[in-house]
Amino acid sequence: MRLRLLGLSLCALGLLGLSTVPAGAAGADATSAAADPVVTNYDSQVRVERDGLLRVAETWKLSDVNGTFTRFIVTRDHLPDDIDHIQEIGDLQVKAGGQDKKADVKVEGDVTSIAVPDVSGGTTQLDVTYTVKGAVAKTLDGTEVRFAPLTGINLPIQTANIVFSVPEVSHVACFAGPIDSNIPCSLAQVGETSGPTFQQTALPPGNTVKMAVGFPKGQIADNSIIEYRHTFKRAFSTDAAQLITALAVLLLGAIALFALYRLRGRDQVDPRRVVPASLFSLGTDTRIDFTPPSDLRPGEVGTLIDERIDPVDVTATIIDLAVRGHIQIVELEHSTEFARPDWELRRVSNAPAEELQRYENVLIRAIFGDADSVLVSELGKQVRANLAQVQDALYDGVVKRGWFTERPDRTRSLWATIGIVTTVVGVIATVLLALLSTWGLLGLAITLVGVGLLVVGRYMPAKAPAAGRVLGQVAAIRGELLEMDVSELPTDQHAELCSRALPYAVVLGGSERWIDALVATDSTPDEADEGFTWYRGPSGWHLQYLPDSLRNLTTNLTGALFAR
Questions:
Q1: pTM, rounded to two decimals
Q2: How far apart are CA 389 and CA 172, in angstroms?
Q3: Is 493 in the same domain as 356?
Q4: In a domain, 109, yes or no
Q5: Which residues contact residue 108 at a Cβ distance below 8 angstroms, ignoring those fewer than 6 apart?
Q6: Checking phi first, is residue 97 left (phi over 0); if not, alpha (psi -120 to 50) or beta?
Q7: I need a labelling partner for 498 at 20 to 30 A (CA). Which of 96, 377, 511, 523 fits?
Q8: In this structure, are residues 198 and 247 in contact, taking their beta carbons and an 8 Å threshold?
Q9: Cα–Cα distance measured from residue 471 to residue 233, given in angstroms and rounded to the nearest whole number
């Protein structure tokens, strides 16, 4: 296919050059028909030096050629495996009638053109000499000259004679016709006293004469000039060196990532360990006290489990603060059945005298500022602007408790940065290596290691040994929240204890059954209820609406606090 395209290109170039000839002829004699331009004879002497350089001396006899005479030489040969053999034309000299003639040499794609301007009509002789470097290539038995001195000439050639001056040869071949022709030349022989001789008669315009002359080993040096075509296959070569190197980088990267996780990211605790624990304990006078182990708070529990602060951790903290008497949640009247619900958060002035965690104080200040109440729909930018401080305080809190040696968010951020930098370096290396070499696979390997760092970095925050017992207690509490028979709680404390357990169930699971337990405290289902001290419904509200109310509250709080 490449040869056919090259042949079409040469024919087009030839016709372009030929289109200027008749005009010159017509200008010379407008009253008579111009004779057709033709190359009556082409003689070429090719001397092959020991180093592989070709020294070419040509004689062109032209008839009725006017204007610019252009001839072409194929100087780039496309071979399999994305290899090109290049030939370089040098030391060009042109004479016409014994006088030096200036010629233009251009390399366009696969072809080098030699254009001789101002050729006069009638009979003209051009003497052309030049050198060709890169025409000798290695073969299995030695070396071989591959040269096509006549290519795409825009004129018919009546007779072409090419004689090689060489030492001992092993074989010769000559083909004439289209660029991909296998038709033998009129004559190709090796004389007893002379070098290989090739002859072709009646060569039509645009056709090619190419020959090959073989030499035994040690006679003529290989001077082939090789360039590699830039293709996707070659840019990402799977040759042994490139493939082994890329696989080695991947393997070493995988080993390094595994070792990194084992040394820095693996928790120093067994998360499957269960330590006896309960949210409830028997107090004085046979009453049940709500006593979470280690004074655990819902927000801390959620952060400890997944090592990050999620929206559910913050909303569970708000509900927990309400249940403990620091905030009151009031559901507002619905203007219409389809109106968007809203809630008012009120700061409780006579809140219980208990010490709040730092992150809880920061959250209350972020919600209320200097006000005593705020609408959930109006929490807006002020809360979101201060939410980072809440997260900082909560992360600092879990580190202070000794559950982590350093803040999980900073650990993730550090390794995410390293992963992003490695990935970007890998992408840049892939592009550069693919453009400039055959080592694109190496860049891909580096990129994959960077992606691996991004994945492993998410698991790099490691829990400290002090977190082990707490995680075991959390596992016991989760089982209690999911499986405990709520009906066993004292009737007079049912609403209080279920309310206290609800924020933990929001984080650990099972919140539906604890909300249902609160709904079950409704002793007068046909009458409207105000709700609880921590959650007040609008007029006409019933406890049966509590599941939908809390679900909508959680959704709206999450949107107000975390929406961008």
A1: 0.65
A2: 86
A3: yes
A4: yes
A5: none
A6: left
A7: 377
A8: no
A9: 53
Residue 451 within a domain: no
Q: Residue 315 sits in which domain range?
A: 267-405+462-562
Task: Please tell me the distance from the alpha carbon of residue 330 to that of residue 375, in angstroms, as a whole number.
Answer: 9
Residues 174 and 49 in one domain: yes
Look at the chain and report how many structural domains it folds into.
2
- Give the N- to C-terminal CA distance of the chain in Å, as an integer: 57
Check the CA dihedral 269-271-273-277 and report its sign.
Answer: positive
Q: What letter represents residue 2's amino acid? A: R
Phi, psi of 355 (to 5 degrees): -80, 125
Residues 6+ apart with CB under 8 A from 143: 52, 136, 137, 214, 215, 217, 219, 220, 221, 222
Q: How far is CA 296 from CA 169, 279, 496, 503, in A?
A: 95, 10, 18, 12
3-class SS at 531? strand
Distance CA 219, CA 216 (A): 6
CA-wise closest residue to 539 among 345, 332, 335: 332
State whether 305 and 197 are in the same domain.
no
Region of residue 386 (left: phi > 0; alpha: psi -120 to 50; beta: else): alpha
* 329 in Cβ contact with 552 (< 8 Å): no
Domain of 48: which CATH number?
A: 2.60.40
Does some domain include residue 438?
A: no
What is the full per-residue pLDDT of the chain (564 aa) written as tens digits?
444 444 434 444 444 444 334 333 334 344 344 578 999 999 999 999 999 999 999 999 999 888 889 988 888 888 777 788 889 999 999 998 888 989 999 988 888 999 999 888 788 899 999 999 999 999 988 999 999 988 888 899 999 999 999 988 999 999 998 888 889 999 999 877 678 999 999 999 989 999 999 999 989 999 998 888 778 888 898 889 999 999 999 999 999 999 988 888 888 777 667 788 899 998 877 789 999 998 899 999 999 988 888 889 999 999 999 999 999 999 998 877 777 889 999 999 888 878 899 999 999 999 998 899 999 988 877 788 888 899 999 999 999 999 998 999 999 999 999 999 999 999 999 999 998 888 999 999 999 999 999 999 988 888 888 888 898 999 999 999 999 999 888 888 999 999 999 999 999 999 999 999 999 988 777 787 888 999 999 988 989 999 999 999 998 888 887 776
In a domain, residue 415? The reply is: no
The CA distance from 376 to 453, in Å, is 40
Instruction: Provide the H-helix boundaries in 177-239.
Output: 232-235
Give CA angle at 505 (499, 508), nearest 5°: 160
